[in-house]
Design brief:
This protein is an all-alpha fold and about 260 residues long. The chain has two domains: about 5-140, Four Helix Bundle (Hemerythrin (Met), subunit A), CATH 1.20.120; about 155-265, Orthogonal Bundle (Helix Hairpins). Helix content is about 70%, strand content about 0%. The protein contains eleven helices and two strands, in the order αααααααααααββ. The chain has helices at about 5-10, 20-40, 45-50, 50-75, 90-95, 95-110, 120-125, 140-150, 155-180, 190-200, 215-250; strands at about 255, 260-265. Strands 1-2 form a two-stranded antiparallel sheet. Helix 9 (about 155-180) packs antiparallel against helix 11. The chain is extended. Residues about 115-125 have low confidence and may be disordered.
């Protein structure tokens, strides 16, 4: 096995028995969790002022590690058949979802060195929170979520389209019912859509509500329909998880002595 192949195996999720890869996974996971904790604590001004150098040193250390990881992934990704081409394969990896997450995890640190406006830099530093998205590469639960969403994407898109359609119809109907009575609240369809979103999501802030008889009847029907429409993606995802877990169980080998998973056939 060449160096590139070995680096690729270490960087990917550890295979059974690969202690080096397992150790790397634990190290990266721990560093990601500590980074998230640091971002949260740094937002508390007394804590940030108490030890700013500690936060800065930890940030530099984390960026060095994540940058090295990103460069090594970019170098070794050609081992995978999906990114086989030395140029286009690396570009494809760089623009993949996880590739962009890896880049966004370190990009805010380097922006000041590129001569960018510091006010913009302060806003972009919020992108550091993308480091938590790196957990998806090592978490089996997150990978399961990804597979379920991928398998049910057509159904989820269809339910989202239905929700948008219902929002437009509801906003139009209530606009025509209330525009003369409450022009300041329902003066346009876009303004009425705020009420539509609050009603369909059953939040009901109470800052806008119909007062006419027709408006109240429409609002009642729309609120009931909103409950049903929002139940659609829940049911779709529930079915997806059942199917995914059933397929995983059927394709997983289990040790007859201890009951632990030992891989797939």
């Amino acid at each position: 096995m060449g160096i590139k192949e070995r680096v690729h195996k270490v960087l990917e999720v550890a295979a059974p028995g690969d202690r080096l890869s397992k150790g790397f996974d634990v190290f990266i996971l721990s560093l990601i969790v500590l980074n998230v904790a640091a971002i949260i604590l740094e937002s508390v001004e007394p804590i940030q002022q108490w030890c700013p150098r500690v936060f800065r040193a930890f940030e530099v250390f984390s960026v060095v590690v994540f940058s090295a990881e990103y460069l090594l992934r970019l170098w070794s990704c050609t081992v995978s058949p999906r990114y086989r081409h030395p140029v286009w394969g690396r570009l494809r990896f760089a623009f993949s979802f996880m590739g962009l997450v890896d880049l966004l995890a370190v990009l805010p640190f380097y922006l000041p060195f590129l001569g960018m406006d510091l006010r913009f830099f302060r806003a972009v530093r919020l992108l550091r929170v993308f480091r938590i998205a790196k957990l998806g590469r090592y978490s089996k639960a997150m990978q399961t979520f990804g597979r379920v969403f991928g398998a049910k994407k057509e159904e989820l898109v269809a339910s989202a389209f239905l929700l948008v359609l219902l929002l437009l119809i509801a906003s139009c109907l209530v606009y025509y019912a209330e525009r003369d009575t409450q022009p300041e609240t329902f003066g346009s369809i876009p303004a009425t859509m705020w009420w539509g979103v609050a009603t369909l999501t059953t939040v009901g802030y109470g800052d806008a509500y119909p007062v006419t008889v027709i408006g109240k009847l429409l609002a009642s029907v729309i609120a009931v329909l909103g409950i049903g429409v929002f139940a659609l993606p829940t049911g779709i995802l529930a079915v997806g998880f059942v199917e995914e877990l059933g397929s995983r169980k059927a394709n997983t080998l289990v040790c007859p002595h201890c009951g632990k998973e030992i891989g797939r056939p």
